[in-house]
Write a structure and sequence with these properties.
By secondary structure, the protein is of the alpha+beta class. The chain has helices at residues 21-31, 62-66, 102-110, 133-138, 177-188, 213-216, 221-227; strands at residues 9-15, 37-40, 48-55, 70-78, 80-82, 91-94, 114-118, 127-128, 131-132, 148-161, 164-171, 192-202, 205-206, 211-212, 229-230. The strands form three sheets. Strands 1, 2, 3, 4, 7, 10, 11, 12, 13, 14 and 15 form an eleven-stranded mixed sheet that branches. The longest helix has 12 residues, at 177-188.
């Protein structure tokens, strides 16, 4: 095993919308000429917020960092159903939205708190027999997915401006917020899909710890080293 260097550590990126998590990894790896870069917890292209990159020997900590609880803020649109459960998907159906107050929506959202078995969406990176589900979805195929046990610690509706409901969620790893939005829409009867999502916390990492991607890409290699969280400090973020 080689000695730990200043280039072994974690970098907290504020992922911009329109980028995949893999896009960010590839850009950082290429720009700084790094050999090993990984990420801890995929964000959909539409989503923004905390994306933890692990560099060098810190890649060995990716599973532990990935297992932490997450917090998200975002919005969903009631009355519209899409094939991907978010705004990037194809609109499948439009329904009438009954009159709701924020308090009524909040009460329905709280009913999802606790342990849940959530079925992953077809448009996702989960692999079945080595093939990502999103590739099968593009072929018009749908396969059976095993429900996953997740836990919702908080599901608050923070504001409602018909037809948009704004929320704050704290949950375990592996939770699909767009599926949670769809499930709430199904329970209401009018359907819903996710229109925006921002990850604001991952374990001990907070959004204020995150660096803007465009700023990172203006750094020199030694500046990157100065912004990495060293291996010895990562334990405090778990």
């Amino acid at each position: 095993m080689r000695a730990v260097t200043e280039m072994d550590g974690a970098l907290v990126v504020d992922k911009p919308s329109g980028w995949t998590s893999h896009d960010v990894v590839a850009k950082i790896r290429g720009y700084f000429r790094l050999e090993k870069v990984g990420h801890c917890g995929t964000l959909d292209p539409m989503a923004t917020g905390i994306l933890i990159l692990v560099i060098g020997q810190a890649t060995r900590q990716s599973e532990r960092l990935m297992s932490s609880d997450k917090r998200y803020e975002g919005a969903m649109r009631l009355g519209e159903i899409t094939d991907s459960h978010d705004a990037d998907g194809e609109l499948l159906e439009t329904r009438l939205v009954p009159l709701y107050t924020r308090e009524e929506l909040a009460a329905e959202a709280r009913s999802f708190m606790g342990d849940l078995h959530q079925v992953p969406p077809m448009v996702s990176a989960i692999k079945v027999k080595g093939v990502p589900l999103h590739k099968l979805a593009r072929q018009g195929r749908e396969v059976e997915r095993k429900p996953r046990l997740i836990h919702i610690y908080r599901f608050d509706i923070t504001d409602y401006e018909e037809p948009f409901a704004y929320f704050d969620v704290v949950c375990t790893k592996g939770t699909y917020i767009r599926v949670l939005a769809q499930d709430l829409g199904n329970k209401l009867g009018c359907g819903a899909h996710l229109t925006s999502l921002r990850r604001t916390a991952s374990g001990g990492f907070q959004i204020d710890d995150a660096h803007n991607l465009s700023a990172i890409l203006s750094w020199k290699r030694e500046e990157l080293a100065g912004h990495l969280i060293p291996l010895v400090e990562l334990k405090q973020y778990l």
